[in-house]
Amino acid sequence: xxxxxxxxxxxxxxxxxxxxxxxxxxxxxxxxxxxxxxxxxxxxxxxxxxxxxxxxxxxxxxxxxxxxxxxxxxxxxxxxxxxxxxxxxxxxxxxxxxxxxxxxxxxxxxxxxxxxxxxxxxxxxxxxxxxxxxxxxxxxxxxxxxxxxxxxxxxxxxxxxxxxxxxxxxxxxxxxxxxxx
Amino acid sequence: xxxxxxxxxxxxxxxxxxxxxxxxxxxxxxxxxxxxxxxxxxxxxxxxxxxxxxxxxxxxxxxxxxxxxxxxxxxxxxxxxxxxxxxxxxxxxxxxxxxxxxxxxxxxxxxxxxxxxxxxxxxxxxxxxxxxxxxxxxxxxxxxxxxxxxxxxxxxxxxxxxxxxxxxxxxxxxxxxxxxx
Lengths: 181, 181
Known about the structure:
CATH superfamily of the largest domain in chain A: Nucleoside Triphosphate Pyrophosphohydrolase
Largest interface: A-B, 42 and 42 residues
CATH class of the largest domain in chain A: Alpha Beta
Number of strands of chain A: 11
Strand content of chain A: 35-45%
Oligomer: homodimer
């Protein structure tokens, strides 16, 4: 951030009065521009024991497999956002959303919130964002070709809990070093 | 938002290519400025069955009672943020944080995440943000003087679950009309 979004004049990085950390502050109108983490919402869509996954057709990690997820938008609930992302990436509608896993990814200022969910019907198709969409048996999950660490964690937690027959809300975090393969 | 934070030129509200909703787009450099909901993190701090509450000394809702909570900052986990807010508003450290309640407040683009927690010691004091900090018995909670609907919901859920002896992660939402007393 270099300029004030309110008046267009330059901002400087400085600690405002009554604050304890540097913020982008407008040198002209004084507006303080706060920057906060973003929430990424997504689903583990199930159909008869299989999990709906998509192979990314966009960067980053084009060609790798993922679960439907994306940034929560203004004007929607977390569950609405997860439903929308699933439609956008798989063409499929989900229902019975239950918050399942929250993952702090501090070094990129993102919080993931993944929901368990059920497909309304086994209707899905490639989309603008996904070259391929497929219902996967647990044994078929392409562990070496998963797009993001958070997706791998989500799937491992989910399969473990499903095997034990006992789901609870979970939290986890991803450190920067974990991203290196 | 009126000006581009990258180049200082005016932005216009328009639907970018490959997008489905209006964004602030720079008419000069083309930067798309996304705006997303913010996460508010906070605690229900307990000490020997009592709950630590604070009477706000800042607007909005100055003079009303609340639980420690505030915007999650870049560079911290959700639990770190809840701990920090508790120190800032009550002077007290909390431990054993467990995610308890997530509340969608769509009309103000906020998601609340409240943690159950335990005071490390019954040390607390007024702060810059709180005129008074007090351990409350359930019977003493000033229901008519609670600062925010989300705090009232959190306390009611918590007391109900505590009475039943069974806590699970909960979700809720607050509609605009609920804010009118």
